[in-house]
Amino acid sequence: MPSSMQLPANLMEYNQQLQRCIEAMGGLDKVETGGTPRDTVYRENKLVLYRYRAQKKSHTKRIPLLIVYALVNRPYMMDLQPDRSTIRGLLDAGLDVFMIDWGYPESSDRLLGLDDYINGYIDHCVDHICETLKIKKLNVLGVCQGGTFSLCYVALQPAKISNLVTMVTPVDFHTPDNLLARMVKRVDVDSLVDAFGNVPGELLNWLFLSLKPFRLTTQKYVNLLDIMDNKQKLENFVRMEKWIADSPDQAGEAFRQFIGDFFQENKLITGGLKIGDHAVDLKKIKHPVLNVFASEDHLVPPAASKALKSQVGSDDYSELEFRGGHIGIYVSSRAQDQIPAAIGDWLTARS
Amino acid sequence: MRQIFLSSVGAAGAARNYGENIPLTGQEQPDLWQALLRTQQAYAEFAQAWISELSGSKQAGHTAGQAPDEASTASGIEAADTAKPWFDAAQRFFPLPQLGNTFAAIPDALTNPADSNPFLSAFIQSPRQRCLLDGWQRENANYHQELKKYQAFCSEVFQESFQRISKHLENSQERAGERDLFDLWIDTAEEIYAEKTQDDNFETLIGNLINAMARVRHQYNLVSEEVSVVFNLPARSEIDKMNEKLMSVQNRISKLETHVESLNNQIEVVETETAAKKLPVKKIRKKRTSGTSIKKRIKTS
Q: How far is CA B193 from the centre of its chain?
């Protein structure tokens, strides 16, 4: 414990630090996200498909890759800022990167279900890219919930995909360490969706923050004082805060199906999953699969991702473990060095 | 101490000013400022609580003549007692994530009891409407009951984290600064939280809370339907039906487009095949009409 004389001085200093921090944040410019040049190549309803422009012209023939991001939170996490950009890394690795931005669902999108997202939007994007590039098959990188969607899609349309990469993707939703699944286990999802229509993003944010409430709602802001003299770090912090709070509402029907079939009934493992009228069988995935997961992921525990190995019918299954968390896998400097290059190498070897 | 408190008020004002100019809008608006202000306010409060506790400790034995370091060599138990106000303040100021925002879309007019709300008092005209409002208020009360249970759970985590740290301090001769103590508290609280969330009761707690929230929203929807009719506005149910129709039309168009595309592809295949079949015929004709100019052939045909 600090001494009685030392304590007021420490607290006074802390208070002054906090004031300086607030002043420093007041002096920040508007934080920008992204930065990698891109073109809109396809639109449908709220969906926008982007194609990213490579900065280095080192690769004459680029390997096409479609990134399917999650519906929760916004996809610019993949291209947060120039020095923290998975997309930039993938371009540098020689890939031709496309990414789906799902947009913000409105009340008119309440009835969009997983069938619309997977058999509709994803399929249309795949067709569009194949047609544009005059190719018959495409590589897919599914991220988090987008990874789960990608698994369903590849199982349903195996002929359209050449290689599949999943990143922090939940497959087995009932591993003992999956707190999120426990939190929604007894939620009456039908009543929730019927009452709210689209499910508010704030509710999801609350659930995510409740996974580690003390670190994520308290310690993080106290730690902010350590970086207040560093404008760049402060901007990074604000940028990340912006992303965390930027949580779109979830289309009601898609949420109902995702919580019901995946979180509550764990149908990818127990079987019986249907997207629209089509039964999903992961054994139909005989493609090369690279499963990237984070060892300290509090949202998608490693065990939930690693379950994929026993579920797919592929003879060419690889895993890549990243030492870090669910967010660090996109933005940490270690991730920038490791993840995009590894994905690039893996795809290059199979293309 | 007073100075600390006043300065925190000044900083809060500065933050509010910045908050108005914060260049993050709409869906991008973070809760950062609320969190920062909460931290600021909390620390001012901690300072007050802790220092008044230390003043009390001095009266009890740590005389003004004692060197500060001597005073700080109090036993672990004393140290833990000294930290108690800090944790009490933490419990008040660092609640777990709040669900309040989820109801942000509900107008204030509908979140007050009807009897004290002129808007709703004017609106209630029939027993049926009274019944709807009663239902909404009943579910609102239920929701707050569930919220209290959740807060009690959070409170347990706080209390246990304090007890665990107290024990740790009793058994340790380490001298921790405020920041070390804070970090230790976070670690301990997360540890206890993780333990407690393994219990089936936690699933029930969260499930009941969210389900209660959905029931409030459902009742609110019924009330808002009535309000919409009174003001001659389209009700949510009508808009939902329109959306259903729109979706149905979009799906039909999409299916038709796919069908048309498939037909076009078939036509293209047939045309290609036909062209391929015709090609040798043309060659044969060319042979037969050898010597005739192309122009003549066109004219003839």
A: 19
Contacts of A178 (CB under 8 A, 6+ apart): A170, A301, A304
Question: For residue A35, is it left (φ>0), alpha (ψ between -120 and 50) or beta?
Answer: left
Instruction: Point out the residue among A6, A23, A215 whose CB comes nearest to the CB of B190.
Output: A215
CB-count exposure of residue B128 (10 Å: 0-12, 13-18, 19+): exposed
- Does A21 qualify as catalytic in the annotation? no
Interface probe with B: pick from A5, A22, A193, A239, most Cβ of B within 10 Å: A22
Cα A11 from chain centroid (whole Å): 39
Rounded-to-integer distance, Cα B301 and Cα B299, Å: 5
- A10-349: in CATH 3.40.50.1820: yes
- Whether A57 has its CB under 8 Å from any CB of chain B: the answer is no
Active-site residue, selected from the candidate residues A21, A125, A144, A152: A144
* Digitized pLDDT (tens) for each residue of chain A, 351 residues in all: 445 555 566 667 777 777 777 777 777 777 888 889 999 999 999 999 999 999 877 767 899 999 999 999 999 999 999 999 999 999 999 999 999 999 999 999 999 999 999 999 999 999 999 999 999 999 999 999 999 999 999 999 999 999 999 999 999 999 999 999 999 999 999 999 999 999 999 889 889 988 998 888 778 877 888 888 888 888 888 898 889 889 999 999 999 999 999 999 999 999 999 999 999 999 999 999 999 999 999 999 999 999 999 999 999 999 999 999 999 999 898 999 999 999 999 999 998
Residue ranges covered by each domain of chain A: 10-349
Chain A residues whose CB is inside 8 A of the B4 CB are: 8, 11-12, 15
Lookup: tokens for A62: 């680029």
Query: What is the ipTM metric for this complex?
Result: 0.91
Q: Do A31 and B24 touch (CB under 8 A)?
A: yes
Q: Using the Cα atoms of residue A306, residue A312, residue A313 and residue A317 in order, give the sign of their dihedral.
A: negative
CB A74 within 8 A of CB A246: yes
E strand spans, chain B: none
B:127-166 residues touching chain A, CB 8 A cutoff? none
Q: What is the DSSP string of B252-265?
A: HHHHHHHHHHHHHH
Give the three-class secondary structure for A75. Answer: helix
Residue A242 CA to residue A296 CA, distance in Å, equals 23
- Distance, in Å, from the CA atom of B104 to the CA atom of B121, rounded to the nearest integer, reads 22
Determine which of B94, B147, B160, B183 to mutate to test the interface with A (most A C-beta atoms within 10 Å).
B94
Find residues 229-268 of chain B whose CB sits inside 8 Å of chain A: 236, 239-240, 243-244, 246-247, 254
Judged on CB neighbours under 10 Å (0-12, 13-18, 19+), A106 is: middle
How many other C-beta atoms can be found within 10 angstroms of the C-beta atom of residue A120? 20
Q: Give the count of Cβ contacts less than 8 A between chain A and B.
A: 223
